[in-house]
């Protein structure tokens, strides 16, 4: 009887799967249950009341005014001045050439006893070398190896060399010889490397700073800032076409110019920052975008009479001069696209 009662009790009990739980899982489950029981309820902040504002709505400025600007330049007209090292190097090369070259065959060029032969003997007696612009130097003497110019010597200066060449062409007879009559011929001298415009500082002249590149800058209004000629693109106008139009409308027809290429040298984004700039523009404009086109002037001069942009003055400036003329923000935008020379 007891066995039967035990069997019935087991059959009446609900069947449960036998799951074995490890000690670690049991410990984690009990910890999570205890944390959930003692957790405090989440507090939500009360809703904020709507604040009414009487300030007017200011629209967001996102659009830019697209402009084409022309960097009209006059390229260098002459080579730059040599550095002291370059002067010494080229002078040494000419003296070295005298040492390595074959001796000068006098009778191949001058017949003996002729006036040319007599003149040659007079000049070679003074300078000791056929070369006319390397000073007193004998390449075949015992001191011929000593061909380097001394510190402070004027023989390596271009001005001294030009003077020596002119004297050799003008004067007949030995320099300083009293018993010989000296004849002097008029020889056309080379033009100076500095012009009158350099001496007086005429920034409107193109005949100045002939070793440097000059750029055209203009002023809008009497108190306006200096900047490059520019204007807004009209319709479907390309940058190249706009640059050609701006040159004519700003500087007149008295210039032979060439706009180089169809791709701009660079661009500059000018955001309106002052109250005056914001007041003068429409509400949706944030600033201006300038695209700089490269141009060359080959002849002529700028003339602001009847210009279309209200320009009052112009200058042709080199890069270092432009740094002192342009606004600091404008200078930082264009300094890397201007030529050093």
Structure class = alpha+beta
Mean pLDDT: 79
Radius of gyration: 44 Å
Sheet having the most strands: 8 strands, mixed
Q: Please report the total strand number as a whole number.
A: 10
* Silhouette: elongated
Percent in helix: 25-40%
Task: Describe what this molecule looks like in 3D.
By secondary structure, this protein is an alpha+beta fold. Helices cover 33% and strands 18% of the residues. The chain contains 11 helices and 10 strands. The protein has helices at 2-12, 23-38, 84-100, 106-109, 115-127, 158-170, 196-200, 239-251, 275-280, 319-325, 328-334, and strands at 63-74, 171-172, 183-184, 214-220, 226-227, 230-232, 255-260, 266-271, 285-300, 311-317. The strands form 2 sheets. Strands 1, 4, 5, 6, 7, 8, 9 and 10 form an 8-stranded mixed β-sheet that branches. A two-stranded antiparallel ribbon has the order 2-3. Strand 4 (214-220) and strand 5 form a beta hairpin. It is elongated. Residues 175-179 have low confidence and may be disordered.
